[in-house]
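From the shared-data thread, chain only:
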Amino acid sequence: MAQTIFAIAENPILVLPILMPLTNELGIDPVHFGVFATFNLVIGLITPPYGTALFTGSIVLGIPIERKVKHMLPFFLAALGVLMLITYVPETVLYLPRLMDLL
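Structure, as tokens:
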């Protein structure tokens, strides 16, 4: 939703500081939330209505968006699967930082 209002560069600067106190209050790890939010923003780059990467790639390659979306659909579904995994299984994101004693 925020992707339709702001570009990718403004989202982390404007939206994440507003959401961070809420995540702290709900007990969500800041590293997990950062990875989750970043992955969401990246998915927003490739999906309409804003999808700057989608539209830019179509213009540069000279391919209609409809044709590009058809070929991109399996990768988009895989990205949604990974998003669900990192959202509902925080250990997928936090395992390596904990292993290196960074958390």
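The two ends are 31 Å apart (CA to CA).
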